[in-house]
Amino acid sequence: QVQLAESGGELVRAGGSLRLSCAASGRAIDSYPVGWFRQAPGEERVIIAAIGWSIYSTYYIDSAKGRFTISRDNAKNTVYLQMNSLKPEDTAIYYCAAQRPTLGGNWTRGQQPAYWGQGTQVTVSS
Question: CA angle at residue 23 from 55 to 9, to 5 degrees?
């Protein structure tokens, strides 16, 4: 069983940066595709970025491209989301989630993750 725990969310001013961490326990997740989602008040949870087992296999939504970077450190069993140039509309609860490993190793869009963290609040003030 995989447990995921997010950290790093806090209150930051617009234009600032944050690095979110998703620490896994229970088993190594080096072969698990991992995604970062966010859910703003009154809105659905949406994916922001994802990474496959290869650090070169990444996916970003358009609003995250050029501002956010997803990465993984398998030695620490942790996936990160570096967020720069933050905007008030980035305010949300951020969740990490892992899909079960596949032969291809990439994140599969539309496939429900098998494991979720509890979320971390990011608030960006104007």
Answer: 100
Token pair listed for 22? 């998703």
pLDDT digits (tens, 9 = 90+) for 43-81: 999 999 999 988 789 999 999 999 999 999 999 999 999
- DSSP class of residue 66 equals T
Residue 19: phi and psi, rounded to 5, are -120, 120
Query: Kindly report the CA angle at 34 between 23 and 4, in degrees rounded to 5?
Result: 30
Beta bridge partners of 71: 80
The percentage of residues in the chain with a pLDDT greater than 70, rounded to a whole number, is 100
**C-alpha span between 43 and 66 (Å, rounded):** 24
Beta bridge partners of 92: 122
Whole-number Å distance between alpha carbons of 72 and 90: 22
